[in-house]
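Sanity check

After download, print the first record. It should look like this:
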Amino acid sequence: MTDLTLVIGNKNYSSWSMRPWLVLRHAGLEFDEVLIPLDESGYKTAIFQHSPSGRVPALKHGELTVWDSLAISEYVAELAPEAGLWPDDRAARAVARSIASEMHSGFPTLRQHMPMNVRSSFPKEGRKPGVQEDIDRIRALWRKCLTTYGGDGGPFLFGRFSVADAMFAPVVSRFRTYAVELGEEEQAYVDAVWGFEPMKEWAAAARDEPMVIDSAEF
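Expected structure tokens:
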């Protein structure tokens, strides 16, 4: 048993849960996992037993509870500084935090019309007004970071895997599910994230979950 417990929703659908789970796995911290299916009656009551916000994810560390995916990721970065979850360079770190925050609070049209569904494929769906603008912005962010900060240190936005990549990991899943057209550089990034070992582990678990009819964003 460990004194870290991550409370999450369905792995196939819960993009918010995916993010800190990837961060914890990459940091190498042992943690217990409590999965609350968000498509079952009474799920809100179950979540409130773990999280004051009534939402997932929530990280319990002894008597402390940290909720919200970005706050949890920041906390894990402090618990495991050796994991290098933010870039070493101050300017790069500031940009990484900026794009992570933009992902955290932005792109509502993409979220609405291209909800995460890891195991499925809907190549002709989700093309609603405003979605392409969100896609274009994300692609531009990726290109800028890969060109300016990716360097030779690795295939991720800032070279090595960081919280910024965890924040965009659900978008990588969405782009695969809805067959979003990407440039060569962006596709290489999608392939790198999809091939990331913790991501493969999450996707495998998502494929084994029971199907639900409504796959709206959780």
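If your output differs, re-run the checksum step. Summary of this record's structure: The mean pLDDT is 94.
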